[in-house]
Design a protein that fits this description.
This protein is an alpha/beta fold. It has two domains: about 1-30 and about 265-390, NAD(P)-binding Rossmann-like Domain (Rossmann fold); about 40-265, Rossmann fold. It is built from 13 helices and 17 strands. Bound molecules: thymidine-5'-phosphate.
Amino acid sequence: MKKKFLDLGLQPLANSFLTTRKKKEFKYNLSICFDTKTFLVSLIKSVNPKKQYTEFYAHRASESKTAREAFKNVAFNLQKRFNPKLSMEIGSNDGVFIRNFKKNKIISVEPCLNLAKITKKLGFTTYPDFWDMKISKKISKKHGKLDLIYSANTISHIPDLDETFLATNNILSEKGVLVIEDPSLLEVIKNNTYDQFYDEHVYVFSAIAISKITEKHNLELFDINYSSVHGGSMRYFICKKGAFYKKTLRLKKQIKEEYRKKMDKLSTYLKFASRVKKSKYDLIKLLKKLKKQKKKIISYGATYKSTTIFNYCKLGRYIDYVVDTTKNKQGKFTPGQHLKIIKPELGFNDSVDYAYLGAWNFKDEIVKKEKNFIKRGGKFITHTPKVKII
Ligand code: TMP
């Protein structure tokens, strides 16, 4: 039974950067629920994917050095461990993962046409489609069964999980492995990173939920592995039931830890919701205080995640503008709060006193890069795990 535990209010689409402040925006209610039977945490009402994954999709996975290096490592390790004849990525974005494969060894599926064009141009076989049974059958007919299917930050975006797993099982070879990587619910709870909830994150998975849903589809979770790239993600290794992969100790430990943290209980999520409210209160209080002291506050990284925080806390009142290195975000306005996005070379100058870390997941990379800002007394603000000045 689905139980609502968090309401983050009326929100715009996280990807809908505006070219003019005047444009009328689509908004939806961002409410989150916990299913007491399946342990799935999801949006109560998801948005139509055709509205989200268009030819204007802004996120470029290759934008950060941390992400590029992490995907390179994963690609290398997966090829070494499973020695796949043919692999596939579901949701290949700008090819940050598949670039590390030989062109005849991997195919990609990507519904955003602007992104699919990039990997096609690079020479990879790219299907510009949403992942479902139809495309699974089409690819299977053309290329046969696959030994490795990888999908980072995509499966959690697809509302129909049953069809997703059915379509995947359909094309997986008998000893094939499905590896999915998505933000970890345990990390969200631990670090109060409620900004992991936005329209594209229809689900935020726990290992116990992935274990249940894979079982339902004749699949088996056999290993797990942590990735820090998106602020704490889990990589789930899944095979067909009885495919001889033994459940690893680290998977058993994670499952045990999630039960110990009562991730199977609604009360855990209700307590989390109270901490989210407190986080909002603390952040507004801090920004109000700094504004009274006439400090200039900007935001660093026009992330999708920060759309949730900006609109839940209505931060447009306190923040002057946002800096971001992504060219197709620069010159635009943030969804909902309509803050101007400018390139760091222009906006991250001596006049800035405080920078809210919208891209908190790249804190180390950013702090290292912006040594001069810190040297001259500039300070970063974060909301995770608690609202504070760094
Ligand atoms: P993501 O968390 O969704 O990957 O988004 C990170 C955003 O932060 C992306 O728009 C690029 C931006 N960014 C910067 O502007 N400067 C940086 O140094 C890094 C690492 C990211």
